[in-house]
Amino acid sequence: MNRILRGALALAVSAAALLGLEALSRYPVDVEGSDGALLRLSWRVRSVRVEHCRKLTPEELEALPAHMRQPERCEGRLAPYDLVLSVDGRTVERSLATAAGARADRPVYVYRDIPLAPGAHRVRVEFVRRGGDEEEEEREEGGAPRHLSFDAPVTLAPGQIALVTYDAERRALVLRGSGGAGAGMAPGPERR
Amino acid sequence: MQPSGVRARRGGWRALTWLDARANGLFGSRYNPLYQSGAIVVALLAVLLATGLYLLLFYRLGAPWASVARITDQAFLGRWIRGLHRFASDAAVVAAAVHALRMFVQDRSWGPRALAWVSGLALVAAILVCGWTGLVMVWDTPAQVLAMEGARLLDALPIFSEPIGRAFVGERPLPSAFFFLNLFAHIALPIGVGLLVWLHVARVARPVLLPPKRLLWAVVGGLTALAVLRPLWMAPQADLLRLPGETRLDFFYAFWLPLVRGVPAWTVWAAGVALVGAVVSVPLWARPARSRRPARSLVNERLCTGCEQCMLDCPYGAISMVPRTDGRPGLVARVNQDLCVSCGICIGSCAPMGVGPGRTGRDQLAAARAFAERAEIGRADVVVLGCEWSAAGVSPGALAGAHLFPVPCAGNVHTSVIEYLVRRAGGVVVAACRARDCRGREGATWLEQRVHHGREAELQERVDRRRVRIVHASAGEARLLRDAVRGFAAEMAELRREEAEEALDVVALCRAVGADARSEGAAS
Predict the structure, then answer these.
(1) Are strands A27-30 and B246-249 parallel, antiparallel or unpaired?
(2) Are residues B183 and B138 in contact, defined by beta-carbon separation less than 8 angstroms?
(3) Among the ranges given (A99-108, B244-253, B285-294), the one the predictor scored with the smallest mean pLDDT
(4) Total CB pairs under 8 A between chain A and B
(5) b/e map B224-259, b = 16+ CB within 10 Å
(6) Bridging pattern class, strands B403-407 and B355-356
(7) How large is the average pLDDT for residues B41-47?
(8) Partner-chain residue, chosen from B25, B69, B170, that has the shortest CB–CB distance to A161
């Protein structure tokens, strides 16, 4: 092969490799069906602490170091919530949302993604605390109400995500993002 | 005959040698990018650093997508710099993969080279994480996909009390702190990359960190031209309340994404840990059985003259000069057994034949004598001293009828062996690998220096250089070697004919002189 031909071939191979690199740097993937839609439940609430206290016996007190002799021992945990989700009258999810953390002492959170077909749906969410009385609720200032519910029609366009979340100011579950731009940034056009 | 350690990696070896041969044909061995894959990665990291510094001037944490869009709108500067930054990062992944594959199929990943293997994998991991953070920084739809999938996988680990995926639900705009963390990781990791590169070449003497200038400018120029002619585009801004749908991902950093979508996170982690474990442990499972591992070099201190040549020649810095303990003045060579990879290049460097991995130049000479006797080598024969990793070692047809004396590396060969074989045979071809493809790194280079440029232990001047030829032919270049051997054999045949014509037939000459004298006497 003479030098010129070899040089031309080397150039062609290099160009092909570069173009291949460029093509692979933006290869199309259908990550999530753009013809589908999504109902997202996501919120975080501070639950109340449900405690059970008992008085220690004299023998138990005697066994403790002097500086740790509290007459009453209380054990407790943050109360969990029952979550029930219904879509168009059909129960889609029924679960228990417990407090996060290794000792179950962090806020209760909910994070669910439910694929739905685009269109109008009736969404009902019930979020009910298990346990805890009014005294405990008063003690836990700023905690979430015992019962949160959401029951409303939700219209989803193709590719849209409807977010049901907790509004701390209104102390209620609210809908965001359905039927138009949501709380996220507005979509921008593809630009070259 | 294939080198022993390669059999298990036969498929990769064959593919690599085929590609090497084609690339040598196109670019020449000096500029073959496959041979320079490691150096190309370093060069691309430098390009990334330079272009990244420019992009950093215009990136805004509070408006990531908008700031990148402004950069992309700078037609004369920002757009192609951003493109060069992206394409260089993609090319770095490709070059790193080629480099790792080469080291694996060439059996260069175990023993003292294990440090380079593991540090190389850490480098790849750092490059990948750097790339992910860089892609997420743009905060377009591909970034959204990457971030959310990454969060899903991280949430499977029992280290967060709440899913970090909740940050991407769209309840509120992402805080600048997220982009700050991303940017910090993207900038801090290159510092780690620099340290890892230093570690990667720590056990290599005279590391080649950059490719030849022509190749360097070709790579950078080619990527720049690509960035100018095929500019990067802006994907739509991330919208956490919209499904990404069809989006365009960077395959080099997101190749794993389509594979893990819909797969439970714990399954992904289990597969990932297994894969990483298998790759990191290559130095353990790819090494030969203990009984088949080559011995490390040892110095015969009685023979060592302290000339330091083996220390200078060792490609892995495994030899040092230490004070003698036998009462003689001067220094003596000592091999660090933990650094010696048994390449045997020290054999060829030692004139008194006092060093080698389980064998020295004396053993080579004895083996050459036995070979010559066994094969009944005569003046009409051509001997190929063939590196078993070159075309001579893997393609019997490349020998064109010559006799093969195999060696583990052409850089092993003591010049006394060449001299001996030249005396026995008509000519000697030393078949070596391409200089940048030598498994011992510098074997082919030192061979040339010893035969033609007087490097110790040099081929003696008394040896007729017309009868010695060095042919650099990689494993996939059998035809090159065959043609060279045939041509050399023809030259040797011509040389024999000339010598025969020039040779004095003393008996015939005396008879002719005697006949002349008798006829003159009769006449008088």
Answers:
(1) antiparallel
(2) no
(3) A99-108
(4) 165
(5) bebbeebebebbbbbbbbbbbbebbbbbbbbeebee
(6) unpaired
(7) 97
(8) B170
- Looking at the partner chain, which of A6, A102, A185 has a beta carbon nearest the beta carbon of B239? A185
Reported as a pLDDT band with limits 50, 70 and 90, residue A179 is very low
> How does DSSP classify residue A122?
E
Tally the residues of chain B: 524
Q: Which regions of A63-169 does DSSP assign to beta strands (E)?
A: 72-78, 81-87, 90-97, 108-116, 119-129, 147-156, 161-167
Look-up of token digits 């130049």: B361
In this structure, what token pair is assigned to residue B516? Answer: 């002349």
Instruction: At A138, list the tokens.
Output: 């008063």
- The answer for B 327-346 residues in CB contact with A (under 8 A) is none
- Please state, in angstroms and rounded to a whole number, the distance separating the CA atoms of residues B61 and B138: 10
To 10 degrees, what angle do helices B361-374 and B415-424 make?
A: 20
Between helix B37-58 and helix B213-229 the angle, nearest 10°, is 40
Question: Over 50: is that where the pLDDT of B116 sits?
Answer: yes
- Chain A hits for B166, Cβ within 8 Å: 42, 44, 109, 111
- The interface predicted TM-score (ipTM) is 0.88
Give me B414's structure tokens: 């003591």
CB contact under 8 A, B162 and A14: no
Q: In the predicted model, what is the mean pLDDT of chain B?
A: 91
| Cβ B405 vs Cβ B359: under 8 Å | no
Contact status, residue A73 vs residue A155, Cβ threshold 8 Å: no
